[in-house]
Amino acid sequence: MNKKWMMSAAALLALTTGTSAVTAANVQGTTAETVKYSNNGQAVAPSAAAVNIDGSLYLPVRAFGEATGKFVDWDEFRGTVSLTDKPELTGKYKLTAPNLAEGIKMGVGSSLIHLPGDPDNVFYTTADRGPNGEVTVNGKTVRTFPLAEYTPTIYKIEINKGEIKILEQTPLKVNGVNPTTGKANITGLPNIKGRDEAPFDAKGEKELAYDPYGLDVEGIAYNAADDTFWLSDEYGPSIVHVKRDGTIIERIVPKGWAAQVATPLVPARETLPEAYNKLRMNRGAESVSITPDGKYMFMAMQSPLRNPDKATDNSRQIRIVKFDLKTLEAQAEFVYVTENAKSFKDLIQADIVLSDMIALDENTLLIDERDKYAGDKAQLKRIYAIDLTDATNVLGKYDTAANGGKTLEQMSAADLKAASIMPVAKRTIVDFVELKFPYEKIEGLTLVGDDTLVIVNDNDFGVGSDLAENGTELWTVKLPQPIVKQ
């Protein structure tokens, strides 16, 4: 049955143009529920009925976009709507490597990059800090490292005929002797006692030694100018400069970090703001990327800082930092606003995180935003294109709640608007929930050419998993239009 419909033209204009005040008469119409639609000859059903107003048919933008096979993104800060064509899934590849130990699978996938000049099926990746889990001992939950001797490693991989093959392994090391290992190799153990999460053996009974050079590697970038890698690390949070042979050159850390631990073999450059010391444990520097021209490096946190405390775990604001790669100084900081958990079913805001990114130029990034669920329970596994062109540089401005104000993490959307803070603009490029990606942690993201997006998941070494297979998959996706790197 058709229904009477009335809305003020002022409200219509406010929604579509962002105009703050319009004087107009009310508009009346009738819902056109019997209208049938097709897209390229195929029947489609919009999510909302059109409205007949004076003989003209009006369909909500989201309903129109979704019915015609497009992603629809609304930017409440700019008052804009973006329609983007959907991509095509072109390949699936699985890792079938031998286990590292009984009950511990081989793991890669905490990052991903394709290097210029390499074959289209060859990539580099990492596998975070190694196998780890949690056990409860005497009523206390502790972090365990069943293979404490694991060395964080850069892996060169190849995809072919549905499989991921490991071609080379480059363990990370210092130029000298690491006192924790008695050799050059580093571990994935935490850095600072009393600050970082305490490491224990597999049974959770014995506390292990800390490693001042230990890394929890989550992102990888490549600088063609000097043929080196940069790795993002959750512990510092930090960004680590590494030679192609795995030797660590230097480490970018927050102000005040170096006073807590001695690392004479790896110079610590305190060019991150001091506020980054307030990271949530295991939610540190999740991604890093370098612009193709080699001028700038970007780093994004996985989650909001605990700034001033853990009450901000459910903040929607996550920080992205831009560095001058020549000086290694932070040049700008931008606000990324994650999706609103209230738009999904039974999703907690703190469970929405950022994982990996690609810098296409100094104003355009691709970024991976996801929830913590897998399979049919997953609701958010999206790759967004983000634009920094008109985003506000907040570097050093909202790190403390001075004079009765709020930190960046304490702000609501209304607070951001009141402070004239413009977050980055974002639009959906790929939705891996729609494509039914089976695993939780899509953590590797890269681009081959200008139209093939590649992702891989981190299987966490199979710790806590009952899967018979390895649980690592790499997927390739063909974008409908090229994404041009400047």
Would you write up a description of this structure?
With 486 residues, the protein is mainly β. 5% of the residues lie in helices and 40% in strands. Strands 10-13-14-9-33-32-31 form a 7-stranded mixed β-sheet, with no helix packed on it.
Tell me the helix content: under 10%
- Determine the N-to-C terminus distance: 53 Å
Proportion of strand residues = 35-45%
What is the alpha-carbon Rg in Å? 24 Å
Low-confidence stretches: 5-25
Largest sheet: 7 strands, mixed
Task: Trace the largest sheet across and list its strands.
Answer: 10-13-14-9-33-32-31
How many strands? Answer: 33
What global shape is seen?
globular
Alpha plus pi helix count = 3
Quote the average pLDDT: 92
- Going by helix content, strand content and strand pairing, the class is mainly beta
Question: Features of this protein?
Answer:
486 residues; mainly beta; seven-stranded mixed sheet; five-stranded mixed sheet; 5% helix
Topology, pairings included?
Elements: E1 4-8, H1 9-17, E2 26-32, E3 37-39, E4 42-44, E5 50-53, E6 56-58, H2 61-67, E7 70-75, E8 80-85, E9 88-95, E10 122-126, E11 133-137, E12 140-144, E13 153-160, E14 163-171, E15 173-178, E16 183-185, E17 199-200, E18 217-223, E19 228-233, E20 238-242, E21 248-254, E22 268-272, E23 285-290, E24 296-301, E25 317-324, E26 330-337, E27 353-361, E28 364-370, E29 381-387, H3 413-418, E30 425-431, E31 442-448, E32 452-457, E33 473-478
Parallel strand pairs: 9-14, 12-17, 21-22
Antiparallel strand pairs: 1-2, 2-5, 3-4, 5-6, 7-8, 9-33, 10-13, 11-12, 13-14, 15-16, 18-19, 19-20, 20-21, 23-24, 24-25, 25-26, 27-28, 28-29, 29-30, 31-32, 32-33
